Amino acid sequence: MEYFKFLYKSQPSIEINLNSVNHNPFEYITKENKIIKYPTFYDNDEISGNIELKLNSNKSLIYEDVSIFLYGKITITNSTTSKIVTEIFKESQDLTEKKSPNIITNEITNFNFTFSPKVKPYETYIGNLIQINYCIKAIIKTNNVNYPNLLEKEIDIACIKPGKKIICDEIYLKRKENNIEINIGVENIIHVRLNLLSVKLFLDDVIVGKIKIIKSEIELNNIYVTIKKEEKYYQLDNVLVKNEDISNYEIAEGFIEQGDEICFKYFLRNIKNLTPSYDYKDDNKNKISVKYYLCFCFNDSQGYQFFKYIEIYIYRMNLSDMNKGQKNFISVKKLINNNDKKKFLKKS
Fold first, then answer.
1. Is residue 94 domain-shared with residue 197, that is, in the same domain?
2. Are residues 113 and 211 in the same domain?
3. By C-alpha distance, which of 338, 337, 209, 339 is closest to 263?
């Protein structure tokens, strides 16, 4: 009978409650279009909360120790069966009350914890090759015959590193001064001049550009641009690479001939799971790289395709701009007015 009581009696349980921080949650959209939201902390934030222990109608609980852990890890998915997991950060606290014996009789008991601000080595990132995750794990070691030896609970959190103000200001100033002009020659068949307002952009930014067909020896009937993401993980002499097309946009369709000019705008905020460009390196010679490229594709009437790649650099805004609550902030609107845009688009 005692055995069946153990099976059907509700066991004590624990939950981790975090003190609210007024930051937009980190969102990740799965392949099934399910949105997962993580509690978000900036790199210099204090992380605090409590472990809530519920007896669930049990009379008492004897415990040996209560611990809370904050840790981060990098998971590299080389294939469907091979994974490399590296711990990058760990901090722990012992929350055991200094009394003997440690007996809990209250239905609900809270154990408070606080992790002081500490620089994390990486920002949270979820990709196809690389995943950088931070977790908080609570463990209560019990000393009861009828209960499990360990009560455990783990939750995921997100660590965000705001952009440095000096870098963000530099991007603003350079964008005001001039635009980027790039000549693209494709196999001596197509020659175009590409004007971009900037190749340094923010997550909610707009790519503003113009293409002029300088020379074309084929009948072009379609031009589109794709944003490609390249993930790389370097470990000593081993390099793992994974590429992904994250967005596609048609610039022009129909008969395109020499001398034509095509203006375009590309809204980055419509791209799901977009992250800043990363270039991380640690003391163990591990390196993580995430780069973005604009891939321009020119299609002719016979089905041939010609490609040209241009790297773009994506940044997170600095803390002062993030705290303004500009959820749909577009830096182009802030930096240049409508007249300036017209001048840029008309300029040959």
1. no
2. no
3. 209
- Give me the domain span that covers residue 230: 165-346
Closest among 152, 147, 148 to 135, alpha carbons compared: 152
203-261 per-position pLDDT tens digit: 989 999 999 988 888 888 889 999 999 999 987 778 889 999 999 989 988 888 888 89
What radius of gyration, in Å, describes the C-alpha atoms of the chain? 27
Instruction: State how beta strands 47-54 and 13-18 pair.
Output: antiparallel
3-state secondary structure string, 156-219? EEEEECCECHHHHHHHHHHHHHCCEEEEEEECCCEEEEEEECCCEEECCCEEEEEEEEEEECCC
Considering only residues 254 and 6, tell me which one the structure prediction assigns the higher pLDDT. 254
161: tokens are 């590193």
- Name the domain count of the chain: 2
Residues 170 and 125 in one domain: no
The dihedrals phi and psi of 84, each to the nearest 5 degrees, come to -115, 120
Do 150 and 278 fall within a single domain?
Answer: no
φ/ψ of 41, rounded to 5, equals: -130, 140
Statement to judge: residues 213 and 331 lie in one domain: yes
The three-class DSSP label of residue 121 is coil
Q: Among the three residues 125, 160, 195, which one is the final residue of a domain in this structure?
A: 160
Q: What is the pLDDT of residue 16?
A: 95
Domain boundary among 100, 125, 160: 160
Least confident of 223-227, 233-237, 282-286, 305-309: 282-286
- 71 CB neighbour count, 10 Å cutoff: 16
**185 and 120: one domain?**
no
Least confident of 49-58, 85-94, 114-123, 283-292: 283-292
* Structure tokens given for 224: 């589109």
